[in-house]
Amino acid sequence: MTPAAVSHQIKTLESWLGTPLFVRLTRALELTEAGKAGLPILSEGFEKLGQATEQMKRYDGTDVLTISVSPSFGAMWLVPKLDQFRARHPDIEIRIDGTDRKVNVGRGGADVAIRYGPGGYSGVGVDTLFSQLNTPVCSPSLISGKAPLRTPEDLRHHTLLHVQWKDADASWRMWLLAAGVTRVDDTKGPQFTQEGMAVQAALDGQGVALIGDKLVAHHLASGDLICPFSSDLRKPLNFAYHLLTPATEVTAPKIAAFREWILDFAD
User: Fold this and answer.
1) Are the CB atoms for 77 and 195 separated by under 8 Å?
2) Would the CA dihedral through 82, 88, 90, 95 be positive or negative?
3) Pair 198, 76: CB distance under 8 Å
4) By three-state DSSP, how is residue 133 classified?
5) CA–CA distance, 129 with 241 (Å, rounded to integer)
6) pLDDT tens for residues 188-223?
7) Helices marked H in 132-243 — which ranges?
8) What contacts 139, CB < 8 A, 6 or more positions away?
9) What's the CA gap between 175 and 134, in Å, rounded?
10) Global pTM?
11) SS3 186
């Protein structure tokens, strides 16, 4: 609508109510006391209308499930397994939204979301998928190279690959301290904003990455990556992956189907 049309609608509403809703200043508008009185309830009403609209849109017959997920988790864990979900539910089309930004689950942002964090999410349904062990991984070529990588102390001869966003407890510094290693400079090495890039660098033999074990499980199983040290040196991470679903009594069948599948798969 044009500003003139909006102004006409406001004047019509004020005439119907019998009271002004705005104080018209030179270059601005301010709510009158009557306008302020109605604003909270009207805002709540419009929000409910929006929620109801999104609920109805889920049943538009398209059966497209939009999943919001971080790019690294999507590429490294979810996407390689989606063919199994599609085999079980061939009628549901998948749309992956690779992002770490905040989304309104079930309100137009995404049907479901997978997020990595401490939990405690409000306003949504939450299922914990799994936690991880912080694990050094590298290409098998580093084991028998010019500076064989056999003990944590040998890391001083190799490049450490860092993931920038990781919390302090998941850093190389904390892992080295827990392993009792003091002669390795934990500040050196390339920094990556996504775990997937650090893993790719490790696959290419560029250094040693510190990554959650579940994210690289398929690379470890294939032998493309190895854990060069004892399993005792894998450290639990404080955060976990969580599935976020709409907090509503009415759940679309496609959301229920995905939740059932991923909870079975994550066990």
Assistant:
1) no
2) negative
3) no
4) strand
5) 5
6) 999 999 899 999 999 999 999 999 999 999 999 999
7) 172-178, 195-203, 217-222
8) 202, 203, 204, 205, 224, 225, 226
9) 8
10) 0.71
11) coil
Please name which of 238, 213, 219, 221 lies closest in space to residue 133, comparing C-alpha atoms.
Answer: 213
CA distance 238 to 155: 24
Which strands make up the sheet holding 191-192, listed edge to edge?
Answer: 93-98, 64-69, 112-117, 235-246, 124-137, 208-212, 160-163, 191-192
β 22-24/93-98 pair status: unpaired
With left for phi above 0 and alpha for psi between -120 and 50, is residue 70 left, alpha or beta? beta
First to last CA, the chain: 52
pLDDT tens-place string over residues 15-41? 898 999 888 888 788 899 988 888 888
Query: Count of alpha carbons within 13 Å of 223, Cβ hemisphere only?
Result: 1
Name the amino acid, one letter, at 242: H
The two three-digit tokens of residue 161, written as one number: 């690959």
Phi then psi for residue 229, to 5 deg, are -120, 175
Three-class SS state of 198: helix
Q: Are 212 and 165 in contact (CB under 8 A)?
A: no
